[in-house]
Amino acid sequence: MCGRFIQITDPEKIKARIPGLEIGEGVREKFRQRFNIAPTQDILTALNFPVPRLTYTRWGLIPFWAADRAVGSRMINARAETAASKPSFREPLKKRRCLIFSDGFFEWKREGTSKRPYFIRMRDGEPFAFAGLWDSWKDRQTGETVLSSTIITTAANRRLADVHDRMPAILEPGMYGVWLNSLPEPADNLARCIRPYPHDDLEMVEVSGLVNSPGNDFPEVIRPV
Question: Against a cut of 0.85, is the pTM above it?
């Protein structure tokens, strides 16, 4: 699974990576570097509108038909193998896909009764994009519209398999256009986007237990031990 990650790349650099991307109102002003993002927090997300738009979504997908937003806390990840058949993810996979840019993510290796945290990033230090799904939910009591999202996961590659059997689906840059297409895409095209990312491009370092507390949101969280 993917339960924590970082976003430190600013909106302008993300815009340069996606042709035609619009930056939503207030995004530039709200942006700050995040070193320990936890579920239900707001995350920078590129939505597959006819003109792709960078905005903030709540991490944890709330299906449009849900009675309560609390369901989102259980939907921070969607398995690539079953997303097409799950009621919460089936329609978003067809129509509401997104890119969630990141500069690295965390995973924990279980050793007996303890867990050791690791930080995974690109070897070249560049940002990358998770394949995600999004939805729009309206609170019937307040009238508030909430945009929310989930990160797709797939089988771990060889580098990560020693730590965990799952990893977020990282998209090859050449697949950004396919994933952000607002028109229907053949299932085979989408399946090619969400395969395990090549292990040689990633590096993994052990970090301290600072990451275990969401309140620790500063650069020291990703410092190798």
Answer: yes
